[in-house]
Amino acid sequence: MLNFEFYNPTRIIFGKDQLEKLDQQIPAEARVLILYGGGSIKKYGTLEKVVEALGNRKIFEFGGIEPNPKYETLMQAVAVVKEENIDFLLAVGGGSVMDGSKFINLAANYQGDDTLELLTSQDALNSISTSIPIGIVLTLPATGSEMNKGAVVSHKMGKYGVFSDLSFPKFSILDPTLTYSLPATQVANGIVDTFIHTVEQYVTFPAEGRFQDRAAEGILQTLIEVGKKTLDNPEDYEARANLVWCATMGLNGLIGAGVPQDWSTHMIGHELTAIFGIDHGKTLAILQPAIWQVRRKQKREKLIQYAERVWQITEGDDDQKIDSAIEKTRGFFEELGIKTHLSDYDVTAEHFNMVLENLEKHGMTKLSETSDLDLSVSLEILEKAL
What we know:
Elements: E1 11-14, H1 22-25, E2 31-35, H2 40-43, H3 46-54, E3 58-62, H4 71-83, E4 88-93, H5 95-108, H6 122-126, E5 134-138, E6 150-155, E7 158-163, E8 171-174, H7 184-199, H8 210-232, H9 237-250, H10 264-276, H11 280-294, H12 300-309, H13 318-335, H14 352-361, H15 375-385
Parallel strand pairs: 1-8, 2-3, 2-4, 4-5, 5-8
Antiparallel strand pairs: 6-7
Helix pairs in contact: 4-5, 7-8, 7-9, 7-11, 8-9, 10-11, 10-14, 11-13, 11-15, 12-13, 14-15
């Protein structure tokens, strides 16, 4: 097992009717900025419940944080934070709102000349010493942002990862019933996102992380069990609760501690989203089967383990097991209603140079757990994904 440090200070408050505990988590005198997205939390009454739970606190609102939150939008919220002396951020939504709140906190406390530096410079992020506490009310299970220090921010034609210990939420309220009203496509995207988070920390090369492997396998098996079920019956509490918890555990640092990680699927997927506007979860479903076909030699041992332990594939030789596992994975995504080829989204080989140029521009030329996935391999993956 590799050396590691594990740190996660986020309090999780899980289950039905846990929103009533919001009042206990935020100082009574706090000036709270509620952050949210497109307005569905108003439509379905979630915002009203949040405001009621906050009682007599001074409350401000900032809505309109878009999917793949844009730097320009988030900087508008930073202006509100400074003008109104906000001292608590409450993100009500999914990954984009949570990620946005993390960046807003960092940007509001950055003393440098240009906040764009926060997208590209870890030194700039490390220079920040003060923080506004962040709370989460989750409405979309997918990214795991409710229990980690990462965020992804969009600017022009790029998506940028922003990581800081100051971004860990103080608490996250996970009430599965608040996710019942989600459109099926968003739920499906979230299932795929969680699935890929998990395999990118698992299907690499053996590192004797036995607990991490079996925890990852448990997440994957649970997603396979409840994925279609929670789509078909959104108000099946147990199915949805298991999805919510899998999404959180898939990217809170636990299963990735002490083992190699490969974020190639996400990095290439980010470019597909930035250029073509394809949903993040859908880009992952397109790319993962192709990546495994192209990288089957490098990932051979773990792909066989994945086939045998997750899909219980015991017949055939090792190559047949790998092929079967890849096709079962593709079938699982398709069962969720997600197409898994670039051609399904009108992306053709003529577009590949644009993707490769973006990867090079953003420094994504040495991807994978062994840093040997260069642009030529990325091209092979895109060709396989057609």
